[in-house]
Amino acid sequence: SSATAELYEKIVSGAYKDTEVVALDGDLVKEFYVRNWKDGDRYQPIGFANEKKVKQLFSERKVELKLRKQVPVITDATGKILWIPGLPPADYAKVNPNTKLFVFLIYKKK
Questions:
Q1: Which residues neighbour 3 within 8 Å (Cβ) at sequence distance 6 or greater?
Q2: Chain segment 3-16, per-residue pLDDT in tens
Q3: Residue in 31, 36, 21 with CA at minimum distance from that of residue 88
Q4: Fewer CB within 10 Å: N-end or C-end of the chain?
C-alpha cells in the first residue's frame, strides 16, 4: 500500500535516530529479548559488509565504558543481536521495499 511505501521511505531516509528508534522487518523478527552487553559480542550492522565487534563500534562512536554497561542489547530468539541503542540495527532484520510488517523499537533513558 502507499502507506507502507511512505513509511519505508521515511525509515530509509534517516527520519529516525538509531540512538532512539529503530524499525525492523516484523516478518523476519517475531521475538525480542533484552540483555546486557558482553565482551566479545558481534553483529553485522546495516551498511557493513561483515560482522564487527560491538566493543569496536562503541569505541568508534565514542560511547563511554560506563554507558556501554547500561545500554540494552536487543536480540532475537536465537540470540542474534538486532539492535543496540546508539548503533545501527542488524542488517539481516532491516526493512526493505517488500516489508509488510514494521516493528518499531523505542529506547528512552530515564
A1: none
A2: 567 777 777 777 76
A3: 21
A4: C
